Amino acid sequence: MQSRHMGSGASFLSSWYVQGPSLVLAALSYLLLARLVIDLVVGSRADNIAFRALRGLTGPVVSLVGAVTPRIVPAALVTGFAVAWVLAARIALVQVATAIAMWRMMR
Q1: Residue 32: which of 61, 53, 73 has the closest Cα?
Q2: Contact indicator for 20, 90 with CB cutoff of 8 Å
Q3: 51 near 36, Cβ under 8 Å?
Q4: What angle, rounded to 10 degrees, do the helices at 49-68 and 75-106 form?
Q5: CA 98 → CA 12, 40, 85, distances in Å?
Q6: Domain map of the chain by residue range?
Q7: 8 A C-beta contact, residue 81 and residue 39
Q8: Model pTM?
Q9: Tens-of-pLDDT digits for all 107 residues of the chain?
Q10: How many other C-beta atoms can be found within 10 angstroms of the C-beta atom of residue 74?
Q11: Closest Cα to residue 55, out of 8, 47, 42?
Q12: What is the rounded distance in angstroms from the CA atom of residue 55 to the CA atom of residue 57?
């Protein structure tokens, strides 16, 4: 007989297709928030190895958001929009996974 109470490891493995991308999006949102704070405090003057690595990791997302954002918007605000889009993607991921789980339960 299977117990109704499963440990956290079992719940992670049963929904890895949601938890994995959610963790990646969470890490990306934290990196984007760090870039946003550094952009607002220091601006483009920061040119050490850590900030270059941070820009390298978050650059593709910021450039993708910058492609659909009007050119008049400042760079730091584009990073803020990127944070909003990543958080919206994370919410959409959870909503779709919940809808799929509900659909499976009703079958």
Answers
A1: 61
A2: no
A3: no
A4: 70
A5: 15, 36, 20
A6: 17-106
A7: no
A8: 0.80
A9: 444 555 555 565 667 878 899 999 999 999 999 999 988 888 777 788 888 899 999 999 999 999 999 999 988 899 999 999 999 999 999 999 889 889 989 98
A10: 9
A11: 47
A12: 5
Would you mind telling me the total number of residues written for the chain in this entry?
107
Encoded amino acid at 91, one letter: I
pLDDT of residue 43: 77
The Cα–Cα gap between 63 and 5 comes to: 44
15: Cα within 13 Å, side-chain hemisphere: 16
Structure tokens at 39: 């952009």
Report the SS3 class of residue 72. Answer: coil
Contact predicate 62/82, CB 8 Å: yes
